[in-house]
Each structure stands twice: as C-alpha cells, then as structure tokens.
C-alpha cells in the first residue's frame, strides 16, 4: 500500500512548519552565538582588553577591541547614529548610552532573544531581553532631564542627510516628556529590545565587574527554549501519527 510511505514522507514537512526562530538549536548553540550584525563576530571569544565602557565584556565578547575604541572616539561610529540630536547629552546620560551600545555590540548572551530581520546593518536583532529594573532606573535617572525628539529611537528618523535627524514635525523635549517613566523609557527607546523586570527575577545588567552575571540568565532562557521546543516537537509527532493511524484504520 502506497499511502503509508507518502504519509511518512510528509511527516518531516509537517514538523518543519512548526519551527520558530530558535527551533532546532541546541542549548550550547544558543549560548555561543553572536548577533548577525555589521561589526559582530560570529562566535564570542576573549579580547584581552576592550575600551572603557565595553571593558566588562573582555573575557568573552562578540565585539573586537578596535571597534570599541572607535565607538568611544567617533560619535557617529558605527551606524551614523547621533545621540546628540537635540544638543549635547549630559555626561552621565551619554555614559549610559555608551554602556547600552557596548551591550549591543559585545554581549555574548543574546542568542536566546535573537530574531531575524532585514536591514543593511544587521540580519538579526534582540527583543524582550529582561533588563534589571535597577539598571533601567539608573539609566532613566541619568537621562530623564536631557533632550530628545523621539519616543522610539529604533525607527522613524529622518535619514536624508545620512545621519539621523529629528522626525519631521517632532520637537526637542525632555526624555521625561516623551517617555514618562523609567519602564516606558527602557522598553520603548529601542523599539522593544528590552523588557524591564524586577531584580529578584533573572535579568540582564549592562555593567558589571568580574564574572558576567548575564551568563546564568541566558542559560536559563536557553534551557527553557530547548525544553519547550522538544515538547512541541513531541506533541506534533504524536498528533501526526494519530492522524496517520486514524486514516489507515479507515482504509483497512
């Protein structure tokens, strides 16, 4: 009977249809991958030394030392993005944005939160990375009285000059006017890259001394993804095989 071989051949196709962005990756693959971006390495590794605000990542980084040095020396490097679009940011606010940029370029812990996109500067981004509320509050306190002209730095800019300029019709106001509070700021500044969680929950920090505390957070999430994927695969296989059994039972 030809029906059974055909159904078996269709089984992998049915299962593949259930794959998400992280399906099929092992825990170690999720933990040893870098964001697919213009200046990122393919896999994280030691750098010996990284420049200033990027230094916490030197033992295991997705960035290179020369990139972090240029980041600190050239305001428009690496993406022609101008933080100071409404005048010079305060030193404290600028320091936090540099730590954020170092996190984006250097963190080896983002694999479990990567999704595919299509942009000139990158083929992936991270979404909903759990950011510790204490980190968020410090960033907010440093920047809330500084000026910006956008409530979402991830999109909507005027790029006609080659450098981001204020969206047409937008005025320069304080971060507090645009975002309201710390949570909205951290979750909306980069279009959903972060979600703010209590420090008592597994959460990421953008600055640390010594061992990287984000390793444990990434491993926990990677384990959850792999276990969930295995459960979905098992359920899909059971469902398809049940359908095969019912179908064959009717034929026989």
List the helices and strands and how they pair.
Blueprint: H1 3-16, H2 27-31, H3 65-73, H4 91-106, E1 114-116, E2 124-126, E3 129-132, H5 133-143, E4 147-148, E5 173-174, H6 175-179, H7 182-188, E6 194-197, H8 214-251
Parallel strand pairs: 3-6
Antiparallel strand pairs: 1-2, 4-5
Explain how this protein is built.
By secondary structure, this protein is mainly α. 42% of the residues lie in helices and 7% in strands. The protein has eight helices and six strands. It has helices at residues 3-16, 27-31, 65-73, 91-106, 133-143, 175-179, 182-188, 214-251, and strands spanning 114-116, 124-126, 129-132, 147-148, 173-174, 194-197. The strands form three sheets. The chain has a two-stranded antiparallel sheet. It is globular. 30% of the residues are buried.
Key attributes of the depicted protein:
globular, 252 residues, two-stranded antiparallel sheet, 6 strands, two-stranded parallel sheet, single chain
User: What spatial order of strands do you see in the largest sheet?
Assistant: 1-2
Spans of at least 5 consecutive residues whose pLDDT stays below 50 are 1-20, 233-242
Q: How much of the residues is beta strand, in percent? A: 5-15%
What is the count of β-strands? 6
Fraction of helical residues:
40-55%
Distance between the termini: 11 Å
Please tell me how large the radius of gyration is.
Answer: 22 Å
Sheet of most strands:
2 strands, antiparallel
Q: Would you tell me the structural class of the helices and strands?
A: mainly alpha
Oligomer: single chain
Arithmetic mean of pLDDT? 85
Shape: globular
Order of helices and strands: HHHHEEEHEEHHEH
* Count of DSSP H/I helices: 8
